[in-house]
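Quick check before the chapter quiz. The format below is the same one you will see on the exam, so make sure you can read both the input and the output lines.
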Amino acid sequence: MSSAPEPETRPSGEIHSFGILAARLIWAAFGPLVLLLLTYSIATASSGWLTALDLAFGGVVGLMLLARWIEQRSGTGTTLTGEPATAQHWRRYVAMLLISACGIWVVANLIGNHLIA
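Here is the expected output.
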């Protein structure tokens, strides 16, 4: 029997940095909430296809991608269910976010500029 202490292992997903916590909150909670509010604003504004609201929508999508990338690169990235995130999770997140955000943006502009106007 050895009396040497066991090395400490960091549990996967444990956050030790405020920056990583902020990144996780941005891509998982605040980003989607802001996108929801911007989608509503775009659909009710009836002001054209490339407005400040549309640019803000794109900026939030970019910020969400950056936040997810920062968390992934930290080594403590997890999925929303708490599993360790892999490169495959990152690629799937990017693809799904870009496809769904583009679709939602187009539908919101169609509603705001053609159905409501």
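If your answer matched, good. The chain has three helices and no strands.
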